[in-house]
TrEMBL record:
Full protein name: Kinase
The organism's place on the tree of life at top rank: Eukaryota
PANTHER family listed in its UniProt record: INOSITOL POLYPHOSPHATE KINASE, INOSITOL POLYPHOSPHATE MULTIKINASE
Protein source organism: Entomortierella chlamydospora
GO molecular function, one term: inositol-1,4,5,6-tetrakisphosphate 3-kinase activity
Amino acid sequence: MKLSPLENQVGGHHGVLSMGEENEIIVKPCLPQELRFYEEAVLHPDFQVWMPSYYGTLTLTRELPQQLQGNQENGQPAGGSEVPVPTVKALNGFLLADLMAPEFAPTLTPEAAQSADISKDENDAECICLENISHGFQKACLLDLKLGTQLFDEDASEDKKARLGVVSANTTSGKLGMRLTGFHVYDCEKGEFTKYSKDYGKSLTEDTVLDGFRAFFSAKLGPQRMRLVIERFVNDLADFLEMIETQEVRMRSSSLLMMYEGDPDAFDEGYLTEQEKIAEVVTKAKVELEKGTASISIDKDGDRVMIGNNSSNKDGDDEDDDDEDDDDEDDEDEELRQKVTDMRLIDFGHSTWTPGKGPDEGVVLGVKNALKLLEKLLEEDYPHEEEE
């Protein structure tokens, strides 16, 4: 398990790291409020499914252990690394050297690694370990869509309230309840990403924000693929809206992270894998229906198939079969790596659960407007008749 700087960050604060053989885990500095929000999310399962998976915490310290002090020059670790040294709080069982990517790790002997002892002090950063939701994309096009009309905490200083109040009033956050914070789009012809900064997002108005979405959906995938991408986000936003209207929560400066695959070949690979998995699920459902051990339902748009188990399993005779099915599902999840689209809610440093106070109307407004804009983009740029 190695720590490296996160490469594809488009919004939020700097200092986010990635960890794992394929950078599948994000290590993100957090405030106690955000950690508490993640830990309490288990009590809100409908909300939690839209969040990145939460794995635990790490403590990152700026102080090197005594064994490494000799490798420093001018106060910097060997190699000029500025990556903080991790100590393990929840994800235990790893040596110091195991957690550092080689190009960022200070030089130390195996003996020093075994005995290195780093104690936490007031300058250490508590970090949460989260699912890297961009994992599974080859060339992820990412958009950080900040939600809500109010961007500051109730307990923020008056100066901060005034400053963020001006930001909201002078951007689409104030009237639309959402803002394109930053995004990047892959150009498969040039083999590079085009990046759009926070300043670009702040420059958009009610009249031009649709052009911002149009720029985000500008990867050269062809009209059929791109319409599929936008349709999926329309469906996701509709489902998310239905959920968020029922949640008693206040989110300040939280974002929806929207991602789609920007490489046409990888896109097709992911889509084909999805269709194959759907076919397998439907085939399995038909068998279970014929045996009378399952029920099946399809949502009103035909987009989702729900399979329920009718077997009571009172005698426990089928437990071994269930275990085998679970193993099969784990294998399928392992194989299904290439994604086509994904959308998650992120950044909860200023979010709180507020029972009895109703939904966050500023966030609801933002989701409604984002949904309307994508529906308009579909209608104007990708009408169905053009597919033929």
